[in-house]
Each structure stands twice: as C-alpha cells, then as structure tokens.
Amino acid sequence: MASTTVVLITGASRGIGKGLLSTYLLRSNHTVIAGLRDPSSPSSQDLDTLPKGEDSRVILVKIDSSSETDARAAVETLKSEHGISKLDIVVANAGISNYRSAPDAAPTPKFVVLSSGAGSISGVDMLAVENTAYGASKAAVNFVTRRIHYENPNLIAFPINPGWLQTDLGNHAAKGAGMAAAPVPIQDGVNGITEQIDKATRAATSGNFITYSGEQLAW
C-alpha cells in the first residue's frame, strides 16, 4: 500500500492557495489539509467537492493567521479526529504562526512560504507599483523562513515568489500600473510552485529565495 503524503496549505479558500490545494488533491494518496479562516463558509465547504485522485482526501481546519491559538488547536484536531501524525509539506500562504510541528515525523519535511519579488530588498528600486507595506511584510517573512532553515537542520525551508499572478490582488495591482491584468495565470504559478517543491532538497534549495521557475532571487 502506497504511503500517504500529507500537505497543509493555509489561505486555501481562493486564489493561489485554492489552486495549490486543487493540484495536490488530484494526486493519488494525498491528504490535503486546508487551513481556513472560516471552514463553515460556503466557499470553504465547496473545497470538499473538488476532484480527487485515488485515495486522496481534503480536511478543513480553522487557521486564522491573526490567531495565536488556531494553529495549535488545528494540530490537536488533526491528531485526535483525523489520525494525522505528520506533515510532509507545509505551504504558508496566509502568514506564519509559531512553527513547531514536529518536522522529524516526516522523512523529508518541507516548509514553503509564498513570498513575493516585492520582498527582495536588493530589487526595491525595480518595483512597478507602490507597495511599501506589502514589500516590507514579505521581506520580514523571508527573514523568518531563512531562520527556520538554520534552526531546523532536518527541514527543507524556503520562500518562493509565485510570480505576478492573476489573482484578485494581483490584477488590482496590475491595473494600478496601467496593465489589463497580471502577467501570470494562476495555474502556471501553481504548476511552477509544485514543481519546485517536488524537487527541493536541503542542499540545493533550503535557505534560498527562489521563483516559481526555479531562479534564485537576491535577498
């Protein structure tokens, strides 16, 4: 019997988070955990109707990035109600909580943060739109993710720039820059991100800032 890969995705109700959830859910033998602000909302409940690969399932849990207790409560719920004892891949798409999820429980655990080119301090003079607060928040999350890399030698941890995606936020920013829409379709970003996660290693990827196409970005 094939082993099950357990993937946790926060901010999974729409946009890139939902795209990643849908893609992983189509793979066989995958348990995909959707971290959601409100699992009871119609948009959250609709996630359970997404197509699934053989022996794959989706679990909805409450994880609000502004809460200091949701992440710990979600871990306890996953253990007690769903028999989840490990997380193979964590994709942080809606903030980072206190990361203490027993990474040694999985053979090659991966912690991936969806960042942005706006978080590159070296590239601050090349930003096409005004986004000081957003860029600063992404630079901070890059720092945290790199520290997680250094503090957890058995973990593969890295931030990834998903591209300027055609999400609601991405298209809004694009229109502010005089463009009709953002340049990267959501599924293209999703495909690139999952490819980079699949092939990520501690030696080659962890602790680096990369794009969805695998290029390294300057901090």
From TrEMBL:
Transmembrane segments: none annotated. It comes from the Eukaryota. One of its GO terms (cellular component) is cytoplasm. Keywords: NADP, Oxidoreductase. GO terms for molecular function: oxidoreductase activity. InterPro entries: Fungal_SecMetab_SDRs (IPR051468), NAD(P)-bd_dom_sf (IPR036291), SDR_fam (IPR002347). Belongs to the short-chain dehydrogenases/reductases (SDR) family. This is Aflatoxin biosynthesis ketoreductase nor-1. It comes from Cladophialophora chaetospira. The lineage of its organism: Eukaryota, Fungi, Dikarya, Ascomycota, Pezizomycotina.
